Write the C-alpha cells for this entry.
Amino acid sequence: MSRLHLVFLCLFVQTWGFSQNELGKYLEFADQQYQKGDYVYALDYYQKAMELDSNSVSILWKYAETLKAYKDYPKASYYYEKVYNKEEAGIYPPSLLNWALMEKQQGHYDIAIELFKRAKKKYVKNKKDYLYLKAKRELESTLWAQTAIKDTLKLNDLTLPEGLNTVNSEFGHSLTDSLFYFSSLRADSIGLNQEIYDPSYTNQLYTLKWEDDQIAERLKAVSADKMNTGNGCFSLDKKRFYFSQCTTQEQGFQCQIAVVRIENGRWGTPSLLGDIINEPGANTSTPAIAEIDGEEWLIFSSNRKDGDGGMDLYFAVMKNSGNQFGKVKPFSSLNSIDNEITPWFDSKNNRLYFASQWWDGLGGYDIHYSTLENGKFSAPKNAGIPFNSPANDTYFFAAGDSSFVTSNRLGVLYAKNPTCCSDIFAYSKPIIVVPVTKKETLADLNKRLPVTLYFHNDIPDPRSRETTTKVNYMDSYTNYVAMIPEYKTEYAKGLKADKAVEAEEDIESFFLEYVDKGVSDLELFKTLLLEELNKGFKLRVSVRGFASPLAKTEYNVALTKRRIQSLINHLSVSNNGAFKPYLDGTAINGGKLEVVGMPFGEYTANQITSDNPNDLKNSVFSRAAAIERKIEIQSVNYLDADSLFFLVDLEPTSIILGKQLFSSTVESSLQVYNNGVQVLKLIKILAVDSSFIGTTPIVINPKEKVTVTLKNNQALPRGIFSTPLQLYFEGYEKPIQIMVLGEGI
C-alpha cells in the first residue's frame, strides 16, 4: 500500500471515529431531553444525529416517538412510515400501529382504516396482546368516525376572556363564582411569542375573572416548589378544594390528589389525601366532585393495581366533611385497557363526562359521557362535534348554558407546531331566530346516504318465494354476526397456516367494516329521520335491494323484496313504535313515511362471484359473495303537494324482464297513478342509454291509473343488465326514475 493511501486511510478512520463519537453524544443528549419532556430540544439533537446517520432505524424510531410526544402528527406519521418500511414491525412492533394512529389524528380516516387493517393482520398471532386489541378497536372506532364526522351539534363558539389562552398549554377545570379555574404550563414572566418546553417550568393552577382584559393570577395557595399542580375542583359546600399535585418528569413524574380547606375565605395549607385514595406507587389525578343519591362522591383517574390498563376511572364516597372515604370502586363499564381521564359530573343531566383513548372517537382522546339511570351508568357515548376533533380533546365541563373543552386541535394559539399545545374552547347553545328550511334539513338526511345493510345467504325466510316477510332486520343482523366463527372456519378451509389466518381476518374485517357499520349508520340516520317526521313532514325513502348470484334470478328478486320489507318491519317497532303512525298514515301531526323498494336481485351483482351451490366457501361464505347480499337506503325526498313523488305512484317500482333473447323485441307494462287533483301529462319515457322507450304523450286525469307500454328499440345487452328508465312530466324539470332489469342470452 502506498504512503498516500495510508494517509487517506488514517484520515478516514479519524473522521469516522470523530463522527461516531459526535453521534453518540448527540443521541445521549437527545435521550436525556426526551426523558425530561423537552421535546423541542430533543428533536433538534435527534435531527443532528440523523444528519450523521440517516439509515439508522433506531434514530428514526426515536425521532418519530418524539414527534408523537410533541403532537406533530404529519411528521410523526412520515417517520413512523419510514421506520415500518425498514423493519416491518420486527424491531419496533408498534411502528405500524403508531403510523395508523398519526393518520387518524390528522382526520385521514380512509388511510387510517387501511393501516389499522394491516396492523390487525400483522399482530394477529398474539390476539390477547395490546397491539392487536388496539388495532382492532381503532379499526372499529375509525369506521365509526367516518359516519360521525357528518354530525355536528348546533352550538355557537363562545368568545373567551383575553389572557386565558396563550401559545403555551392551557387546561380548563371549572367556572365558579365568576372565577375561571384552569392550569397552564407557563412562566410568570414568559412572553407570548414562544412555546415553553423547558422542564424547569411547571404546570400551575391559575384563576381569571370572567371579564374582558383581565390578567390570569397564579393560585398561590396550592403552589409548591418544583411541583406541578392542576385539575382543581370544589367540594359541594365549597369549603374544600381538591387538586392534582405531581412531581416533575426529572423526579419521575408521579401524581397524587391533595386538598386544601377554606374557612372564612382564607385558604389553609394543602395536604395529600391518604393511601385509600392515593394508592402507593400509582398515579392518581384529575379529581371531580359529584352528588349522587344524596352522597358526595370523589371521582378520579388512576392506574391502580386493580385497573383494566392505563389510567382508569374510580370513585369513593366521602364522609365526615371529607375526612373519611369509603371503599374505592372502579367504573367497570367505562374503563378499558387504554386510558380514561379527566372526569366531570353533570348533576343537571346525571351524566359523567370523561376523556378516553379507547371508545369510539374521532382522534386521540375524545370526550365521552355515561348517563346514570336506575343506579347504573350506561355504556359510553361519544359527545360528538364540536367537543371532539381528530386531535386530543379532554377536560369537558359546563357552567350555565356554556360548555368548555380543552384541545390541541388546529386553531389553537401556537408559535411553531400548530397542534403542539392545548387551548380552552367554549360553546353556547344558539338562539334560533329563523327556522331551518326543509331544504337544509333534507340535505342533512341525504348526506348520510347510502345506508347499507347486509344479510346472510337466503335470509330472511330461506327457500321461500314470497315477496314479503315478518322478520325484523335487527333480528336478522343479530343472527348474522353470531355466524362470524362459522364464516371464518368455512372461508379458511383448505388453507395453510398464515393464509388461513389471513382469510379469517379478512372475514372479520368485512363484518366490522360493512355489517356493523351499516347498523351504526342506520341508527344515526333514523334519529334525523324521526326529527323530520316529528315536524309533520311527509317523506319518501327509496331502498334498493340486492342479492348474490347463487339462486335463480326470479328467486333473487323475491328475496330482495323480503329484505326491503325486513327494514320496514324494523322501522315499525323502532324507538318504541315512534315510526309506526308515520308508516301507516295515522300520525296526528300529518307526517308520513313511505318506504319504496326497488328490488334488483342479482342484476347488479359481480358476475364473477361464484354461483355454484356445491362451492359454499365461495358462493356463501366468501367476502365477495357476502358483499352482494344487501339493501341500500338511497335517497329521501319530501312528499310536498307539488312534488312528483307525492303526485305519482308507479307499479312495479322495478321492471323485471328476466332472461330474454338479446336479439328479440321485449314488451312490458308500467302502471302510472295520478294521486293529485290536477291533470298530469306524461311527455317522455326513455332509458338513459336510449335502449327502452315508452308510448307518449299520455294524459292522466286526477285519481286515474293508466297503463304504459314499454319496449326496447335496439338489441338487448348480452348478459345481466340494469338500465335506468326516466319518466318526464310536463311542467316538471326532474324525471322520476325506475330500473329495467334483465339478462340477455
